[in-house]
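Weekly puzzle thread! Below is a chain. First person to post its structure in token form gets bragging rights.
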Amino acid sequence: MTCMISLTLLLLLVDCWQCATAQEPLSQQQQHNAKPSRWLLHDPGFPVDVRISPFGDETWTEAYIREQDDADVLYIPSSLLNVTVVLPETHNLTDVHVSISIFQSTGDAKDTRAMVQGEEAYRVLADTQVPYAKSYRVAIGFNNDKRMKVRVYVEGKAGVVDGAVSDMKMRAFFVRAIDPSPSEAQYYLCGDEDDDNNNAQQSDTEASRAHAFPPTNMPRNLCKQYTMNGRVPIRKWYFDDQTDADRSYIERSYEYIEELVQKARARTRFYYGATDDYMYKALEKYPIEGKHVLIVGSTTPWYEAICIAMSAASCTTIDYNKLRYHHPKIKTFTLAEFETSASRRHFDVIWSISSFEHDGLGRYGDPLEPNADLEAMKNLLQYTHPTHGEQSAAKLFVAVPVGPDCVVWNAQRIYGPLRLPLLVESWNLIDSFGFQKSDFTAPFTVGHQPIFVLEPHVRAAKASEERDEHSEL
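Winning reply:
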């Protein structure tokens, strides 16, 4: 049995591809390592073998996992862990249970040695007991800069000890420090043009086919497209907001949203840190009072709350997934619903905050499409109102991660001097907040998201002449 464990302590069963019972014989390949693990304490004769790896990542072979045994911290660039528990072939074990606990660093100490010695402060994120299975799928959620510890406790009854019937408890206790932050950047050798031509049909099939889980690795036959002919490096940082959509898109009440509205009126930071500050400054210069606003992409109604707080005439949100925001001033649609809805109209203002960088990477169950972000930006033009006479052009506010160009698979893209001009080429850039050209050479981070203000090309000629140097790409 394979189990999925979330930080909300909700236990779900997923496809059973490694079903086992405590009495089931184990193959030689599954036997515990003869070398004692420095991370395991156990009763005599009960050397349980516990392994932690990224969920579904075929590049993490058994040999590679064992190579990591001596590392003080196990680096796993994923929000989903695969925890395997293999019992020894002894004692005719019964009534076996496994407890899995997740702890997150509070950030009081950054030193690796202090962390391993237990000197760093931690808080409990999850602590749950489950029936024995060979493998557990453990969701640890978004974690960018804080390390974690995984604790696995295994307990069972030994039916036979030294040839005699027994009811003795057997226990094993495993603790491992992990760092689930993004991996280092790597440039990929994508193959020659003939390979791409031969794989064109295969690429189309790969992009369109349904996946039980979002692919953990970039398909090699889409390498050239995702890396812009090998010029953009790849980092790994895996998320599954397709399978875990119910937890990624939580239902939000009127009372909760009204609390956010009050925070927005007080110009509080809430969701994206400094990006919220950039947004407030942008709205001072380009107010939305009395305007109809379309918000593209949302997992929490924070920017909807800002929309309400700034006295917009209407706030409409569209997303891949079904949103459940209960507030009379907010309308929500899936993309499919919006295309056939009477609310599909032209808007005065469009916001896309931390959305386009995810498009086409499969994280949210969307098809794999290397240029989905570029196409999405172009498609927004159809939602801008036509301008007449003195009517001002529609405004698009976009926030995406900015830095050295990179694809962080499958979490997001980071837009640098190669990709960012392509993203905005269908629009005229009239202003920016929080952006500097030096961002393109800054150290790696996933969270720096300036606000760019754009207009459709047709009505932006005059504004483009007045661009400040800080807003140029």
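Puzzle host: Confirmed. Bonus trivia for everyone else. Residues 2-179 form one domain.
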